[in-house]
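Reminder to self: tokens first, then the designed residues, so the page reads top to bottom the way the pipeline ran.
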């Protein structure tokens, strides 16, 4: 995706407003529950910075976050050299951030795992890029998240991204390379693409595939006002995915604009109780289908920060799982993420 396309996607998201978030606060519940946040971004885009200091402020806001995973966001690419290796610049950048943690008394392992990107349409030619990511990650590179998200409606996705990437022979060849190197594959796709995702996962049973953002339910564009209908279709496709043992579900991302919950349009931020009311049907269904050992909660910060605070977000996750056993909650909040991304906590 060209840089101008990335900027178009970023501009479509609501802005993070610190003053708005500061108008509401709530106490942290279950502060002793360990959290590994397996999905956040660090970036330095024009007019939008979320780097070490901003991330630590959120991670240290009351929940017991012990480690985090950075997921690719097309920031700090190499400016020169072969096009296929330019994304390695992001891994180099994030590794420097992670190294900074080791030089302080910070109790959180910031970016203990790094997920980068390659173009799946390169097929077997992704191999040099994968090797370069591993070298740049200095022991912390864990996997790949390629660009596969697509929708024909420009209100939903304001760029013309390639359709059907996962159906190409090149993508299957690239996935074989990723698997052979012991990496995981993160996939962000809308619920309309989940049939394609399931076919891809089934074709690579030895590859761990992590489904991002609760499987991408939509509530904007042509799906606005059709939440029950979308939920029904999303549920059927999630059921199919859950039957594939190599799939793992990341629970989060519903504060992105795509889901259409528009908490950002309110005069004050949502409470954790309001987040539970909106999101529990999606997340508990995923937990029931995949099981806690194949589910992990994510923050997706700073994207989701446009609609809620880090404190309220994780409080909501804790409230919607309060009836589960301590072991099940440990899986959801830390153990699954630590196992899948090979993080020692």
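Designed residues (345 positions):
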């Amino acid at each position: 995706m060209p840089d101008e396309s990335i900027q178009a996607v970023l501009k479509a998201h609501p802005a993070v407003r610190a003053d708005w978030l500061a108008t509401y606060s709530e106490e942290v519940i279950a502060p002793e529950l360990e959290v590994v946040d397996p999905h956040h971004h660090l970036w330095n885009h024009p007019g939008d910075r979320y780097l070490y200091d901003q991330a630590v402020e959120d991670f240290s806001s009351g929940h017991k976050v012990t480690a985090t995973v950075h997921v690719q966001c097309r920031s700090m690419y190499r400016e020169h050299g072969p096009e296929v290796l330019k994304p390695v610049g992001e891994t180099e950048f994030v590794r420097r951030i992670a190294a900074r943690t080791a030089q302080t008394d910070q109790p959180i392992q910031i970016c203990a795992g790094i997920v980068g990107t390659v173009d799946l349409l390169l097929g077997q030619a992704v191999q040099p890029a994968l090797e370069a990511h591993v070298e740049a990650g200095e022991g912390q590179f864990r996997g790949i998240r390629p660009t596969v998200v697509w929708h024909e409606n420009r209100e939903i996705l304001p760029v013309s991204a390639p359709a059907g990437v996962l159906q190409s022979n090149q993508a299957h060849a690239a996935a074989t390379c990723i698997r052979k190197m012991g990496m995981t594959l993160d996939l962000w796709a809308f619920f309309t693409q989940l049939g394609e995702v399931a076919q891809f996962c089934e074709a690579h049973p030895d590859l761990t595939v992590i489904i991002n953002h609760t499987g991408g339910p939509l509530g904007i564009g042509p799906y606005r006002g059709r939440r029950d209908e979308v939920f029904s279709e999303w549920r059927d496709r999630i059921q199919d995915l859950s039957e594939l043992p190599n799939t793992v579900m990341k629970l989060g991302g519903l504060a992105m604009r795509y889901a259409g919950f528009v908490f950002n349009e309110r005069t004050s931020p949502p409470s954790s109780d309001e987040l539970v009311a909106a999101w529990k049907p999606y997340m508990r269904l995923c937990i029931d289908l995949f099981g806690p050992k194949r589910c992990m909660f994510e923050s997706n910060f700073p994207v989701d920060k446009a609609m809620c605070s880090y404190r309220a977000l994780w409080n909501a996750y804790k409230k919607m799982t309060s009836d589960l056993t301590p072991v099940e909650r440990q899986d959801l909040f830390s153990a699954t993420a630590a196992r899948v991304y090979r993080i020692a906590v």
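The mean pLDDT is 95.
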